[in-house]
Design a protein that fits this description.
This protein is of the alpha/beta class. It is built from eleven helices and twelve strands.
Length: 304
């Protein structure tokens, strides 16, 4: 029996659904089920009764749940205590950010932060949300700026910051590039370059939602994983793409970025950005960065 197995058990007991619990821990359902089976084998007891429709705790499972929660709380308290001691001695802040935030928010934020904390070294990692969250959970990152997922691990704190504005990336040689702004109707017949939904669900769904709301079907011509690749494909004239406005800071020759005029200004027409960190953890450097961010958030949001 180990702590990871206990975490799986407690989450399964709370969700009463192995698939939902596995999603919150960002692991495959098959691996999640294996952890539960190993725990049952270690304890020599059946903890769940599973049917095709639901999951129910057995009597032994009910007895274990309270003890498991206490053990995990104690383990987390010990871990946090030692992490806090290490962080008090540290002068390095480890920050993760998705690509658009790394291009737009981070330069402004770090410039303001260093005015107040000139001796702090900020180590920056740029990656996708699905890769940043496990690093925050494992303690390898102190803070990350991400797209908030629908399913969230219970031991992470999310703070919504603002919504990024979508723009249309289009080849500079395209006739539409001469316009000051475009609508979905203007690009409805254009081939689209979209991100892979598995790695960038918010950006992918935003494009599909904007076309759906405007009454058109998106003509997806190419799927690409990285934002830089998408912009390069646009430059080559292979299609247009809907990207965050901060993407325009990625200098690629031959690409124009045009403001998009959606039908409405609902949050579904924009991209949410959130800060995330471990719950029940104290970190003076992280808190200092967040204080600077919140003090200047109106200025940052105006440029998003």
């Amino acid at each position: 029996m180990n702590l990871h197995q206990l975490r799986c058990f407690v989450l399964a007991a709370e969700e009463l659904h192995f698939g939902h619990a596995a999603q919150k821990l960002d692991i495959l359902p098959s691996a999640f089920g294996r952890f539960i089976r190993l725990l049952e084998e270690d304890l020599g007891a059946k903890l769940f009764v599973r049917t095709t429709r639901n999951v129910v705790l057995t009597e032994e499972g009910e007895q274990l749940l309270g003890d498991a929660r206490k053990l995990l709380a104690q383990a987390d308290a010990v871990q946090n205590r030692f992490r806090e001691k290490a962080r008090r001695r540290a002068t390095k802040l480890r920050v993760g950010a998705i690509d658009s935030a790394a291009a737009g928010l981070i330069p402004m934020l770090l410039n303001d932060f260093r005015k107040e904390h000139p001796d702090v070294e900020v180590q920056l990692l740029e990656d996708k949300t699905i890769r940043l969250l496990p690093r925050v959970l494992s303690g390898r990152l102190d803070l990350a700026f991400v797209r908030p997922p629908r399913s969230r691990a219970p031991n992470l704190v999310y703070r919504h910051l603002f919504y990024e504005t979508p723009v249309v990336a289009i080849a500079s040689s395209h006739p539409l590039a001469r316009r000051r702004k475009v609508s979905i109707e203007n690009i409805a017949d254009q081939p689209l370059i979209v991100p892979d939904r598995r790695s960038r669900p918010h950006s992918h769904d935003l494009t599909m939602k904007l076309f759906e709301e405007a009454g058109f079907e998106a003509r997806v011509a190419q799927v690409a994983d990285e934002k830089q690749t998408i912009v390069n494909l646009v430059s080559a004239g292979l299609g247009v793409a809907i990207v965050p406005r901060w993407t325009s800071r990625m200098t690629v020759e031959g690409v124009a970025y045009l403001p998009l005029t959606p039908k409405g200004e609902a949050p579904t027409s924009r991209l949410p950005l959130a800060a995330v960190w471990m719950s029940d953890s104290r970190d003076a450097l992280r808190d200092g960065l967040m204080q600077v961010l919140m003090a200047n958030i109106d200025r940052y949001e105006a440029k998003a």
